[in-house]
UniProtKB/TrEMBL annotation:
SUPFAM superfamilies hit by this protein: F-box domain
Record's protein name: F-box domain-containing protein
InterPro entries, sorted: F-box-assoc_dom_typ3, F-box-assoc_interact_dom, F-box-like_dom_sf, F-box_dom, SCF_F-box_component
Occurrences of domain F-box (ranges): 1-46
Organism this protein belongs to: Ilex paraguariensis (yerba mate)
PROSITE patterns attached to this UniProt entry: FBOX
PANTHER family: BNACNNG10540D PROTEIN, F-BOX DOMAIN-CONTAINING PROTEIN
Taxonomic lineage of the native organism: Eukaryota, Viridiplantae, Streptophyta, Embryophyta, Tracheophyta
One Pfam family linked to the record: FBA_3
Amino acid sequence: MSDYLPHEIIIEILTKLPVKSILRCILVCKAWYSLITSPNFIVRHLNRTVLSSKIYHPTLFIRRYDKNGQNEHYTLHREDETFGVSFSELEFPFKIPIGYFRIVGCCNGLICLSYDLFGDMTTIILWNPSIRKSVTLPKPSKSKSLHMFVLGFGVVPMTQDFKVVRIVYYKGFFSGYEAPPNVEIYTLSTGSWRSINSAAPSYCMVEYMWSQALVNGVVHWIAYNPCFEFGFCSLIVSFDLGEEVFHEIVLPEALAGEIATNLSTSVFRESLAVIKYDKEIGTTSCCVWVMKEYGVADSWTKLFSIHLVGTLEKIIGFRKNGEVLLSSRSCKLVAYDPKMGLIKDLEILGDTRSFHVDTYMETLVLLGKSKR
C-alpha cells in the first residue's frame, strides 16, 4: 500500500482504525512498526479517539473484588441499553499478597494503580489493558516512617503527557501533620520523579478512602483546614498538572462546615462534583452538588438527594443517561434513577469497598515503551 498512497494518507487511514487492528498492522513491515510506535502517531491516534468518545457512546470500566477475596475483575461496558447485561472482561496481570490495588484514576486509556497497604512499600503502576502493557514507576524518595500521602493522576491536555503527583504529609512532634507537605511529580515522558518548588497548601487532604476528580487536566481532592477559627473548614484543593501549581476552590456554603470525611469529589458529565454523605460509615443518604461553571463559586448547584436507608453504601459513578451507580450493603453494584427514585439491579457482585467505575477508551499509550 505504501508504494501507491502518500505517507500522510496512510497515517490518516491508520489513525481511524481501532487499537486491535493497528496492533496487527505493526507486523506488516518495519516501516509501519516504526510509524505506529512513534510518539507523534500515538498522540495523533489518541486525539482522534478522545474526539470520537465525545460523539459516540462512551465505554465504562468497572473494577470489583469478588466476595471470596480471591481476584480483581475489570470489565468494560458500553454506555447504552446493554449496560449491565453485555460486557467484556479485561485480563488483569498483576498479583499482590493481600487486599487489592487502589485505583488512583483512569485517563485516556491508562489506569493508575497503587498498592499502598503497607505505607512506604508503595507500588504504582500505569497500565494500558488494551495493548497489555504497563510501566511500574520507580520508587519515590524515601519518606519518614510516620507519614501519610495522597496521589493524583492525569494528563496535560496540551501535551498529552501523563503525570502522577504525590503529596506527602509528615507527622508533627505532638499531633497532626507538618505543613506544608512535600510534593513530587512523576512524568511519563521522562520516566522519573522530581520534587517541585510550587508552594503546597498547608491544608490536609482526606486520608480515609481519598478520591480524586480530574477535570481539564486539573486534579481535585477534598481537604480541610485544621486551623480554621471556628474548628474545621472543608474545601477543595486542586493541582494543575500543566502549570504544576495548587489552587483552592471554595465549597458551597452548605458544605463548607461539613466534616471532610463526609465529602468526596467526583465528575458529573465533565463537570466538577462533590458528594456529601450524612455520615462516613453506615450512611443512609447523600446529595450531589455540581460546579456548572468551572472556577465560579456561585455556580455550585445542588442536583439531587438520595435517601436509601439500609441500601446505600457509596456513590461509585454516574452514567451518561443520568443514572447513579451505587454500591449497596448487599455487596452489589446497582443503578439508581434520581428522577424516578427506582433501583435497578445490575447483577454485578463484589466487595463494596472495591467497586470503581470510570470512563475508558482504547489507546496506544505505552506502545513502544519498555516495561520498567
